[in-house]
Amino acid sequence: MIKLKKKRIDVYHNQVGFLFKNNKLEKKLEPGTYRMWDFDNNYFCYLIPLTSRHINIINQEVLSKDNIAFRFSLYTIYKITDPEQFMNSFNLQNGVMYMLAEADTRLGGIAQLAIRDKLSSMNSMEINEKRTEISDLKTDAVQEAAARFGLQFEELTLRDITFPKNIQDLFSKQLEAKIRSMADLENARTAVATARALKNASELMKDDDNIKFMNWMETLTKIASKGNHTFMLGDQWVKGNK
Predict the structure, then answer these.
(1) pTM reported for the whole predicted model
(2) How far apart are CA 67 and CA 74, in angstroms?
(3) Same domain, 60 and 163
(4) Would you give the distance in Å from CA 92 to the centre of its chain?
(5) Is residue 203 part of a domain?
(6) Which residues, including other chains, have CB under 8 Å from residue 5's CB and lie 6 or more apart?
C-alpha cells in the first residue's frame, strides 16, 4: 500500500513566501506552515528574508575636487521592504541566494556612486575637516534608487577616509599651525586685557590727591638721595644727603 504525503512548506516569522506552480506565481504566503498535494513536483516556493543585511565596501579610490587621490570605506545595512518588487527585479532561475547576492552588488554600486558624487565635489581639506558631517549618506536620491529594487537603506555610513602619507603630513602641520596661532591669539588678547587694566588703573590714580602726594614724596626722596639739596616744605627744612 502506497502512503501519500502532502508537501510541507514552512514560512518563518521573518520571511515571506511566494508559491509558484508550473513556474507561474500562484500566491503569496505569510508566515506559517502549508501542506499541499504535489504528485508531479509542480510547486516551488521562494522564501524571501525580511531581516536586515549588511555590506562592507572597502578600499575604494576617488579623486577630490583638487585632484587628491584618497581611499574610503563604507558600511551599509539594508533590508527588503517590498518583496513583490524585489521578486520582479531579479532573475529567479538561480534561487534566492543569487538574488540576494545581486542585491548586494547593486546596492553597493548605488552607495559608491553616492559617495563619489559627494566627495569629488569637495576639496581634500574640506573633506578632512568635515568627515564627521558627511558620514551619513542616506539621502532621498539614494533611497529612491534602492526602492526600485524593493530595498531600503537602514544605514549608509562613511566609515574610513585614508589620504596619502604626504597629504596626512600636510594636514598635521596645518593643524599644528592652527593650534599655535590660536595660542598666540589668546596670548595677545591677554596682553591687551592687561594693558587695558593698567591704563584704567593709571587713569584712576591720576586724579587721586593721595596718590599724587605719594608720587611727589617719592620723587623728592630720590632727588635728595643723589645730592646735596635742600627743600622747604611749609616751615620745615629737608636737607638731602651728600
Answers:
(1) 0.62
(2) 21
(3) yes
(4) 39
(5) no
(6) none
